Amino acid sequence: MTRVAVVGQGKLGFPVAAYLAHRGAQVMGIDVDQDIVETINRGESPVPSEPGASDHVRELVASGALRATSDYAEAIPGADVVVVLVPLLARDGAPDFTVLDAAVAETARHIAGGTLVVFETTLPVGATRERFTPALRSVSSDVLVAYSPERVSSNRVWRDLETYPKLIGGVDDPSARAAADFYRDHLTAEVWVLASSETAELAKLAETTYRDLNIAFANELAKFADEWSVDVTEVIDAANSQPYSHIHRPGVGVGGHCIPHYPHLLQASTQGSPLIAVARGINEEMPEWVVRRIEKEVGPLAGTSVHLLGASYRGGVKEAASSPAHALVACLRARGADVGVSDPYFTPAELRRLGLPPGTGDGAEVIVLVTDHRRYRAIDWRRYAPALIVDGRGVLDRREVEAAGCRYLGVGR
Known about the structure:
The chain is of the alpha/beta class. The chain has helices at about 15-20, 35-40, 55-65, 70-75, 100-110, 125-135, 155-160, 175-185, 195-230, 230-240, 260-270, 275-300, 325-335, 350-355, 400-405, and strands spanning about 5, 25-30, 65-70, 80-85, 90, 95, 115-120, 145, 165-170, 190-195, 305-310, 340, 365-370, 390, 405-410. The protein has 2 domains: about 5-195, 3-Layer(aba) Sandwich (Rossmann fold), CATH 3.40.50.720; about 210-410, Rossmann fold, CATH 3.40.50.720. The protein contains 15 helices and 15 strands. Strand 1 (about 5), helix 1 (about 15-20) and strand 2 (about 25-30) form a beta-alpha-beta unit.
């Protein structure tokens, strides 16, 4: 039985640890948050909304296949494989290695020769070989090191693990072979061995940055459509009706742990790309553009009651990381608007802790749909009449909104 330590038990690290345990490994999760450790060891999921992991955590803990600790000295020395899934975010446009460096340093203190360390955290190109391998091999030169990026999304981690090819790049051939053997033993998906850790790092950054570039183009199309009074949704559907076009959808802003951060990691790996920088700027500016568009409809916003539907960056999840709700609140407050936020996944107290002002939307003059939560599509808009309804995700039926006595405004619609 393979003994695995998974460093980081957050929204991705815990489901990965649980999946590996479910697939027959002996897994110990490591996290500095003692509350998370205790939750796992009670047989409970620290990410309750995650299917698979939450369904099986109790039996995995009861059987001894899965445990958690905050002590690297307890988990690392006995591990055959160490999987690192500590988030690396961009701060002010540059990667902040503080937390990840600390995790690698603690791992290196306790690592034994022959152990395989796999980084699944998204990294700048070259970081696996140049930043982390020297630290890991400072004690033993035969530590094996590989990069295999996570390619999963919250609330569907187990499904994604079984769907998308697992990309692997080693810092040398023995590391690549060891990582390939490990994942082939514990995943049902294809395993692709790439030429190097740098190849795998760049592939991960490429697939995420592509989405940022594509969304930026969609947002530009939305502005063009608004200028010409056409519906951008119809435009994109028409363009995508042939196989060479795959334009994404515009929206009020891009959020999450990935797209707002990973293009910056790619920029940090190169001399800088004007294309990537422009796309990132377009997407970061969308909340401001939407607020200006609202002003064109209702006039100056000072004293206007505006309510945001949704704090999550994506529908169906309880995650506010880099949510456009934050930028919208700031833009609206700067104009003197009275702003409130609600989200079915967050309590008013949780919204306050996020820095978002809770509200109900009752009596609001402007309602902005920020998050594509499914339940928002079934709202009886008569509740808000005669407010302006701003469809920030392009998912509402204009006719229903207007039939309810409200005005409709979309992003490019």
